[in-house]
Design a protein that fits this description.
The protein contains five helices and three strands, in the order αβαβαβαα. By secondary structure, it is α/β, with parallel strands linked by helices. Strand 1, helix 2 and strand 2 form a beta-alpha-beta unit. Helix 1 packs parallel to helix 5. The termini are far apart.
Length: 128
């Protein structure tokens, strides 16, 4: 399966997701972790849809164990609906092991950016 995280939401998608979020009493929250910087559309899409985004732009020299520790710590936070590890990782890192450190109710392994946001919103809807 090809992962598609390079495409922002369309205006129609933003509108649809924002409508779902507007009906919630608790704002959905996402932690996005990446090495380097997230693309600007990530912040724009989250803001347009009404999602709270907590961004962790990590230095390029970070070790795999440090990243796993951060993800595990974020997964313990009740205020976050999910933790997204942005797709780009250094060569040789074991993505499966890193993502596997997240509990099923916090990990976001959707194949597209839109599906990731839909999953965060669906988790918030289930808590209502």
């Amino acid at each position: 399966m090809t992962t598609r995280f390079d495409l922002p939401l369309t205006p129609e998608e933003r509108e649809e997701l924002a409508r779902r979020v507007s009906g919630l009493t608790r704002r959905p929250a996402l932690a996005a972790v990446c090495l380097g910087e997230l693309p600007p559309f990530v912040r724009q899409d989250c803001a347009a849809c009404g999602l709270y985004l907590e961004q962790y732009a990590l230095p390029l020299g970070l070790g795999q164990a440090d990243l796993t520790d951060l993800l595990e710590g974020l997964a313990m936070r009740a205020d976050l609906g999910g933790v997204l590890l942005w797709p780009d990782l250094p060569a040789g890192w074991d993505r499966s092991a890193i993502v596997g450190s997240l509990p099923l109710d916090k990990g976001l392994n959707a194949p597209t950016w839109r599906e990731t946001l839909e999953l965060i919103i669906a988790r918030a809807e289930q808590r209502e």
